[in-house]
Structure formats: structure tokens, C-alpha cells
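Try this one yourself first.
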């Protein structure tokens, strides 16, 4: 009786005879043919190594090469912008970018020049400009680039106060790190061009963040009060100066007017005095008449009668009520 295992056994065909003789060379020839072509992407170049030594660089497209292991092709993305992230990691870059929840304090926590801690997160964007230097001049270029970037960032942050790092000095720090990192890449000859360094988030460490936020709020409130006081100053002081200038101009005008009037009156008096000295009686009479004319004109209607006239009061009361009666010579 056959066991279940014996029933399930399948006999494989045996390769022997002339078929096996041609199968292995055919597979070997097919493998050599496939490995004789290299497909390079539109953003890449292919660096060809012949027996491990650099031989040439292939452009994008389908290229012929000697089969493996004689020649080996390493694809280098020279047209693609690459990046290295510090203090955080991007899991999915999409409409809603997702970031890793791990903590990277070992690379982001730094001590500032005033012995405070700051959590600095940044991105380095770069391109590969020389594939030969990138592959053969420096071992593990990307790790070396990360070490250089972190070293320069710590040095520059350590020369500044925590307020500079968190607020006004961020752009200056990013620019200085970018320049110095490019200089160091040129010295190492790693075939990398730094295109941009971006400071993402610069915050105090999480344990002291609430206290730091309170300090920031107090500073912002102080700045707000200072700005409000400056606004009131700029609104009140110019207006007060304008009013003072206006009063000075009015006083100057009034002074000029009074001086001119006094000069005119003095000249008039001198002219009258000269005429008076020529004919005192005539001048006296003229002055008297002019004065009486001005007085009587200003005082309204007057009825002048001789003091010896009698029985005129009833007639005056009937004829003109409200007329005042004055005596005169």
C-alpha cells in the first residue's frame, strides 16, 4: 500500500543527452547578451568600470558595453536635485506630507554661544556635478556630506546667541553654512554642488518650550507697547509743533500789523502837526468838525434845539417817538 507522501511525489523530467549540451551555453549566451546593454535614465549618466577601473561615462539612453563582469555600469542621477534632511525625516512627500515620528535630537540639538540649547532642523539641497569624483574620490559621499554639514552648522550656531538663532539670525546662518559647505566640498573634490540650505524649524528644546514661549510673548507685548507709544508720539508731536508754528506766524503777523499801524498813525500825526503849525485856528476847527462828524454818525439820530425854545416837547413826542433830545450851543 502506498503512503500519502508517495502518492504526492511528482517525477521531474531528467535533462540528459544532447538537450543539456546546448541549454547551458544558450543560457550563458543570453545572459552575456543581456548584460551587454545598459539603459540609462533621462536624469542619469552611466559610469563604466572595466575590471574595476574607471573607463568612460555613458549618456542617457540605451548604450552598448562589454558584458558583466568585464564592464560594470553605475548610474548617477546628475540632473536630479538631491537632499539631506537633519533633525527630521520625510516619509511621504505629497499633498499632505508625512514625517517620521522618531526623535533626531542627536543631530538637531545644539548649544549656542550663550550656553543655551536650540533644536535646529534644516535641509541641504545639492546636485552631482562630476560623477567620477562622486564615485571614486570620496568613500560614501552622502555620509561624508552629512558629517561636514552638521559640523559646520554646530560651529556657526555655537558662535551666536539663542535669540539670533531663533529669530533674526536664521537667514545669515543658512547663507554662511551654505558658503562654507561648498568650500569644503571643493576641497574634498566630491563632485557635489550645494544649491540651497534651508532652516526648517528652529525651536527651543521641548522641556523649556513653554517658558520660552512666555518670554517671547512678553517681548512681543513690549514691542507692541513701544510701537504704540511711538505711534502716539509721531501723531501728537508733529501736530503740537504745527500748532506752535502757526501761533508764531500769527504773532509775527500781528506784530507786523501793529508796527505798521503805529508807523502810519505817527506819520499822520506828524502831517497834522505840520498843518496845525501853519494855521492853528483852521486846523483846530477842522479837527473839531471831523470829530463831531464821526461821533454823531456813530451815535444815531439826534435833534438839536436851542435851549431858549419853549413848547416843542409835545410836538416832538407826537412827531417822532423815540428821538433823543440833546442840547447844544
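Now uncover the answer:
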Amino acid at each position: 500500500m502506498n503512503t500519502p507522501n508517495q502518492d504526492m511525489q511528482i517525477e521531474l523530467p531528467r535533462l540528459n543527452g544532447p538537450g543539456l549540451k546546448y541549454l547551458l551555453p544558450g543560457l550563458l549566451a543570453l545572459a552575456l547578451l543581456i548584460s551587454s546593454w545598459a539603459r540609462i535614465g533621462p536624469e542619469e549618466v552611466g559610469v563604466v568600470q572595466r575590471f574595476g577601473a574607471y573607463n568612460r561615462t555613458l549618456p542617457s539612453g540605451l548604450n552598448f558595453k562589454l558584458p558583466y563582469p568585464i564592464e560594470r555600469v553605475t548610474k548617477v542621477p546628475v540632473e536630479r536635485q538631491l537632499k539631506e534632511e537633519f533633525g527630521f525625516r520625510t516619509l511621504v512627500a505629497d499633498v499632505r506630507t508625512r514625517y517620521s515620528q522618531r526623535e533626531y535630537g542627536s543631530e538637531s540639538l545644539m548649544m549656542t554661544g550663550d550656553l543655551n540649547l536650540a533644536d535646529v532642523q534644516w535641509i541641504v539641497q545639492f546636485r552631482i556635478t562630476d560623477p567620477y569624483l562622486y564615485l571614486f574620490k570620496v568613500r560614501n559621499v552622502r555620509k561624508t556630506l552629512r558629517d561636514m554639514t552638521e559640523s559646520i552648522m554646530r560651529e556657526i550656531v555655537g558662535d551666536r546667541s539663542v535669540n539670533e538663532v531663533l529669530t533674526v539670525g536664521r537667514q545669515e546662518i543658512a547663507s554662511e553654512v551654505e558658503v562654507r559647505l561648498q568650500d569644503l566640498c571643493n576641497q574634498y573634490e566630491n563632485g557635489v554642488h550645494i544649491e540651497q540650505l534651508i532652516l526648517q524649524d528652529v525651536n527651543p528644546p521641548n522641556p523649556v518650550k513653554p517658558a520660552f514661549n512666555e518670554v517671547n510673548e512678553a517681548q512681543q507685548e513690549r514691542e507692541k507697547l513701544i510701537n504704540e507709544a511711538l505711534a502716539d508720539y509721531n501723531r501728537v508731536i508733529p501736530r503740537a509743533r504745527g500748532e506752535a508754528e502757526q501761533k508764531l506766524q500769527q504773532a509775527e503777523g500781528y506784530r507786523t500789523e501793529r508796527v505798521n499801524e503805529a508807523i502810519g498813525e505817527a506819520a499822520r500825526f506828524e502831517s497834522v502837526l505840520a498843518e496845525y503849525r501853519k494855521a492853528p485856528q483852521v486846523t483846530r476847527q477842522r479837527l473839531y468838525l471831523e470829530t463831531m462828524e464821526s461821533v454823531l454818525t456813530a451815535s444815531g439820530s439826534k435833534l438839536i434845539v436851542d435851549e431858549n425854545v419853549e413848547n416843542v416837547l409835545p410836538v416832538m413826542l407826537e412827531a417822532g417817538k423815540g428821538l433823543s433830545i440833546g442840547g447844544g450851543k
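Discussion: The first strand starts at residue 37 and ends at 40. The chain has three domains: 29-79, 82-204, 206-322.
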